Each structure stands twice: as C-alpha cells, then as structure tokens.
C-alpha cells in the first residue's frame, strides 16, 4: 500500500469510511477514490486492498454483492450493521490517535 508504512494500520478504517459514505463500492473504485481524495499522495495497491477486503468480509463487517456490468461480474462491497458500528468505533480510535500524536509532536520537550 501507498507511500508509507504508517498508512497500513489505517487501511481498514479508510475502507470502512469510504463504504460508509458511498454505500457500496468495488475494489478498483476504492483505490481510485483514495487516490482522488489524497490528490495522488496515497495509492492503495491491489495487493494490499483485496486481502483487507477479504478480512473485513470474514469478520462480517462487509457484505458482498455481485453484479453483471458490461458482460463482466463485479464484486461490490458494502457495510453490514456490524460494519457500521465498527466504522464508528475505528473513526473515534483514529481521531484519538491523531490527537495524541499531534500533542506529542508539538510538545515542548524539557531536558
């Protein structure tokens, strides 16, 4: 995934948040939306995305819907009720992490 190891720990939260906002999305659409939102700064590879989607599905946080689009089968992912609850929890956890990191980075360290 992307440009930094720091993003790896946030991949599930990114996916859950996008699905919360957009209802349902397919894998390539997720990668392109992240690229668009971050103005190309963050690129999620298929090698990182699909294992994450499969893990979230196995944890019953995502449902899969298969649709035929232009004679091809496309797998759409959407949040389950459990996934919606987990999204809220993960977003709160991420906000707390960001707040704590901001505090630490901007601290005046006395020696």
From TrEMBL:
Protein name: Transcription regulator PadR N-terminal domain-containing protein
A Pfam short name: PadR
Cross-referenced Gene3D superfamilies: Winged helix-like DNA-binding domain superfamily/Winged helix DNA-binding domain
Limits of the Transcription regulator PadR N-terminal domain: 15-87
InterPro entries referenced in this protein's UniProt entry, alphabetically: Metal_resp_DNA-bind_regulator, Tscrpt_reg_PadR_N, WH-like_DNA-bd_sf, WH_DNA-bd_sf
Organism: Kordia algicida OT-1
């Amino acid at each position: 995934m992307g440009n930094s190891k720091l993003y790896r720990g946030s991949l599930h939260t990114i996916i859950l948040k996008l699905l919360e906002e957009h209802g349902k999305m397919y894998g390539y659409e997720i990668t392109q939306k992240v690229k668009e939102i971050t103005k190309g700064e963050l690129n999620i590879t298929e090698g990182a995305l699909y294992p994450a989607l499969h893990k979230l599905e196995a944890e019953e946080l995502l449902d899969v819907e298969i649709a035929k689009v232009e004679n091809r089968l496309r797998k759409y992912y959407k949040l389950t009720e459990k996934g919606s609850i987990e999204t809220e929890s993960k977003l709160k956890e991420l906000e707390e992490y960001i707040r704590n990191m901001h505090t630490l980075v901007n601290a005046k360290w006395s020696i």
